[in-house]
Design brief:
Layout (H helix, E strand, L loop, with lengths): L1 E7 L4 E4 L2 E2 L4 H11 L4 E4 H7 L8 E4 L11 E3 L2 H8 L9 E5 L1 H8 L4 E7 L8 E2 L8 E9 L9 E8 L2
Parallel strand pairs: 1-7, 1-8, 4-5, 4-7, 5-6
Antiparallel strand pairs: 2-3, 2-9, 8-11, 10-11
Amino acid sequence: MISLIAAIGKNNELGKGNDLVWKFPADQKFFREKTSGHPIIMGRKTFESIGKPLPKRKNIIITRDKNYLRHGVDVVHSLKEALSSARTPLAGSEEIFIIGGSEIFKEAMEIADRLYITHFAAEDKKADVFFPEIIPIVWNEVSHKEFKPDKENPIPYTFSVYERFF
């Protein structure tokens, strides 16, 4: 199973200046709980914005740079290679998570089975990176849990899970 996981605003805003727009503890916990123990695939810029391999996950980095090497991650040069690396027995999971960036998300939307989306009830007009449109005739929302703002998470948000109509 190929799953995309992202936190987005009202207009699908993901990030700006190679950083996430939405960084709140509830979403970070959701991300950690969903992806721990699973392979994660990301682009080079996403990896560099994180700064290190995420623990308890096989980290797979996609880059065009044939000389790019980093300790503790698998470096590949296409989504196809990344999926092959994630499907090895050593990866140890049937669910593969794609965690960004926007170009990887766009390419993976065509083959993804599931989306884990944190929807924030806000806009960021300075965002320069966006998640692809979630088209209702392609994606069925199978889970929806709303949360009110609190001290640590000052914007209303919803955890939604979508599955592709087959």
